[in-house]
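--- STAGE predict ---
source: upstream dedup step, 1 unique chain passed
mode: sequence only
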Amino acid sequence: MSGNLQTIKETRNYISGELAAIYSGREVRSLINVILSYVLKTDKQHLLMEPGRQLTVEQSEEMIRICSELKRGKPVQYITGETRFYGCTIRVDESVLIPRQETEELVDFVLKENKDYRGNVLDIGTGSGCIAIALALHMSGAVITALDNSAKALKKAAENAGINNANINFIKRDILKRWKPFNYKTGIIVSNPPYVTESERKYMHINVTGFEPPGALFVPDDDPLRFYRAILETAENILEPGGRLYFEINGEMGASMFRLLDSFKYTGVSIIKDINGKDRIAKGVKNGGK
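--- STAGE serialize ---
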């Protein structure tokens, strides 16, 4: 089929039919609005008001091409090249994870607890830069540093910082490799590291497993907390006494995360549930020490 979608209404019907077997009705309606808005450069309200609006041949062909991409599971955010996160525009491609609502909840929790914080904040495993950018724009007194082991991810994060006018220091480091000592101290560490176990892969949609970077998603079944442990070991040297650490976590690992933070002598350890009632955020305060 090529170049024969005439109107917005006809396009909606075509896409609905093509995607009905893959996505829920609610997801299909959302995807249609995103696609139409993207191709026609207009908003949802105008789309609803103009069901008879005529498409050009080029627009029709673009709709069909995008629908074909969606049918093979490609996330719509990778097709349009961007998404929204905590009021920011975040550009994405297959080098970075697509920001999730759960991560917005992490950012919101950090901001509520540290509204007037003035000092260093370190975002470990920044990916698209979404956490660091949101924090930079809402914590005017803080100095934000973000690190990742992927040069491609850091390039995308720096691009996103630029389009959102966020001032962030970016560093390329691998948290799993022992760092040489360096002169840096921070009062807050935030991280959304890989936490999906390999055994969970089979339950996930193709639009995740087939397109998003696996190194940013999956961890071995026999060591699912490896990134958290590495961060806590690093925090021994760089997190100030009384400093706060915030993690996004696997919803099935709240108890394990509590024990891990407790084993590193963190106080005020708490596991916070997300909007769906899943354990999602782990918080700890570094022991005062000397």
